[in-house]
Predict the structure.
Amino acid sequence: MTDSPSTPPAHAIDRLHLVADHGRDHGPGRRIGVRIERLAGDTSPKPVAVLCHGFKGFMDWGFFPALSAAFADAGFLAVSLNASGSGIAGDPMTMDDEQAFFEDTYTKQLSDIAQVRAFASQHAEALQGGDVLFGHSRGGGMAVISAAETAPRALVTWAAFDDADRFDEETKAAWRREGELRIPNGRTGQIHRIGPGALDELEAHTGRLDILAAARRVEVPYLVVHGTADPTVDVAAAHRLLRAAPQSEGVILEGADHGFGARHPMASSVVGFPDLERAVAATLDFARRAVKLDG
């Protein structure tokens, strides 16, 4: 006689929007999408995990729903965000707000992350004492800076870049000359545009946007996860972050790519995706130790 497979626990998911607070210089605020997930029926205080997407990503992309579900299963209040410049507007699966994407900048992303972290900390079910901050790719780099500016309980990055200035001088000159940088989206076929404001801020805030310098100021436990076959951000970035951050530990996954084998869309489970299974298992083990969750 074989045991029947266990039924996954039910989850409660709320979606809402915050008006982005970018200050007067940035004009009227755009909307930050927020997704809150936890075990259904559990209203007890629980540690918070804030999940930040990367470039051309969003909170319903690829592995994010599965990662959110895994955090909820582990006893966390999982709070995901769509940055105000993500390009996501009405349809949570479609990047259709090209103007928001055009106007996005690193400092706006940092403001959005800080705003969502503050909002999450005030949730009725949030256990006080700091969040576990997670970021993937560009979101990982921004999470490092956010952690240096406001310490979380712990920090996790997957495939994070360690240098915000990833553009050569020829690209920057063309960006200035044309008033935009065009970015093809291989998944959708869209051509996204980044406006000159992003370049202005990149050059004006070199100190704040120095990711490795920020990593040196991160004084909380920090898990760096990266694949050796990442074609987007070389694994060398992970080793530089590990050398910079004083309380870091690394999980280097042999043969894993930038998305750890994720597809889009995919089910809210990483079962059958071995690189993701390993990344999620390492992340949850680290996060539970950091917040001292039993089990």
In short: The domain at 11-291 is CATH 3.40.50.1820 (Rossmann fold).
